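Checklist before submission:
- one chain only
- standard amino acids only
- sequence pasted in full

Submission:
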Amino acid sequence: MFKRKLSILFSFFLLFLYSCAPHQKPKEISSLDHFIGNDFNWKELTGSDIFVSSRSSTSEEVMAKIYSSPSMQELQEAKDKMPESLALLTDNFLNDLYTDYEEMSEHQQMMLLENSHCDMKVLNKETDPKRFALIHQKLNKAFTYLRKTKGIRSGYAFVGNIAKANVGGQHGYIVNMATGELVEFPISSAWHGIGFQEDSGRTPVGYFIVYDKYSQPGWQSRTKTTAPQKMFWKLEGQSYIEEVLYIYRKSTKTEKAFICSNQFGLIGQNIGSEYVDLEATKYLRKNPDEFSFIDNSNSGVRQLYLHGTNREDQLGYELSGGCVRMSNINSFIIKEIVKKQKTLPVFLDASALHPPIKINLPGFDNTDLESIYNEQSIVIRTQNLLDSMTLNNKLYTKVLPPLANSIAYRMSKIENQSADVKISINVPFPESAMKYWLHMQDTSNYDHIPFQQHFGFKGEYYKDVLKRGQEHPFFRNYQYNELKTYFTGRLDDAKLRLEKDLTNAFSKYDIDTTGFYSMINIEEQTVIDPYFNDNNDSISGIEFLSISDERRRVMHYMGLLDTLASDYPENLDQWDHLNWLNAYTSLSNELPGSLPSGEIDYYDAILAQAYIYALGERELYEREIKAGKLLPVKGQNFQEHLVSKLGPEGALALMDEIGLWKLFQYSRSSENTSNMKITTVSRPKEEMIWGIHRLAEAYYSKYKWISNQYVLTSSVNGQAITMND
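Returned file contents:
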């Protein structure tokens, strides 16, 4: 209780090899001697002519907005100097962006217009002859290998210089393999440096291929791309999960590094039997005979990629977890090349362009690395995790048997086998318990608290279904002990079923099951929502409940209002928009739900005002983004931003006004599937309490799916597997 009060008080004051035989090194010649011709023949390379997507009609307003971005201006300037074929592919991306722009969220648009990077330079004999000649001289071995050894004389390739930033490295080059023209932009390779071992966190060098479609089964890097509509979306577990909050480093506690927008799987082509002449031997001061018979063939197993990143401010420095990062915009140019060519040759080397100089790396810590998927995650999201028939059909027939087969297959290929599986369930915090939140923070006894979801994930209201007597399992009234018993039983059942499926799979792959329980660890994992963990004196009763960020803000404002009413009651008299709460403060000592049914108590009133504040805060935040006035900060930071401009009373009064207006608009929108209405935003709040509750709960229901999931994470010997194993 003291911890909660302290937190709320603080918030209130803030308101204020070809073989192993001896080899001969290739003769040192300039890579410029290799390139002839003006451009290359797309039809010869890909079997089809170059194409340009027809541009859909785009308003001048949209184009003006896009080209107000410094990064897009840089891209346009670079496009004007590109080889014709690459400029046409860049146009494909721009056409898609014009089409998708209005489908992007305001947050995505803001990041594109204000925070995105391109930093692209076209290097040829006309644009920058000195830099053009320097890159060809320093990376000559890469160009020679691609053209002479691999016979790549048409199309585009990617060459990365992963030497440290202080010697001129950390740049990638799109190379026209017919003319030698280069497009240069910053990249970021591993902060651990160069290396080939699994779990080393190092970036390998040598020759790789990116495939548009990769058919090799098993645990391998896979190319995954998207339309601009999902620019700046996080990729995790091979799925796009949500927008990133930032595309610059904020804090690992706020948001860790992620793969974003597009990822291109690096499939290593050197297996240690071929001498690969590398500039990296000089950079690393290695004997070529020791270093040049490289094996990078495990790069797919290591889940290494070229990819867009949410650390665009760190590009140009060696700060990744092993992958090669690039800006999200540049990842779309690579996407268009891969889409056209079907493959992209890649060569990574390390060459010092100049003597070492002193530089300062941007803010960084060794936990700020994108995930390389040490675990496979299977997430089941369904409208109703209490619907046993539907869930059992999916879980027991479509998920657990192939998962068991994948684990057994992987274990049959290794010695000293061990596997770990964690199973967890989370369901959304019920609307019916929202007004009990203040009380729940101080008790672990929830026997009198109703747990019931009133709304589905699209705002559909379920009370009428209950009246017809056909109880929907997810939407009838439960006590928490019933939920806990049910979900604990579900986890136990899933564990037993997986053990059975694993036993059958072990038999299929002739794995001895004598030491089954020493090899297999299946853990029923309770994932406690960090919000509940931080804000409750006891968490023993809400292990399976989770809540979205948006609904957490409602709880924040409940605590704030409770603190005002108990410690600063004079503000309820002085602040006009809160006068109406005075009628309910005398009921604050009554337990929530203790009044006769249908009567409004103190907690109903506090919750209604908290909904209004949270809705107003969100709407004001979105308005400032639209106006281009605000960096992407949310929640408490945005509240402090408003207080700094308007003062505590002014900020809360504005959130009240805008929140009521937002609720009024929502009541008349097509999103309001239950067709509830507020007739005016000027009517006293006490006459609208139940309407505010129902409308706000319907509005916030669209965020509940984030907290509704059945998750299985699995690994073999600490390494990820896939269902294809």
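Reviewer check: DSSP finds 23 helices and 18 strands in the chain.
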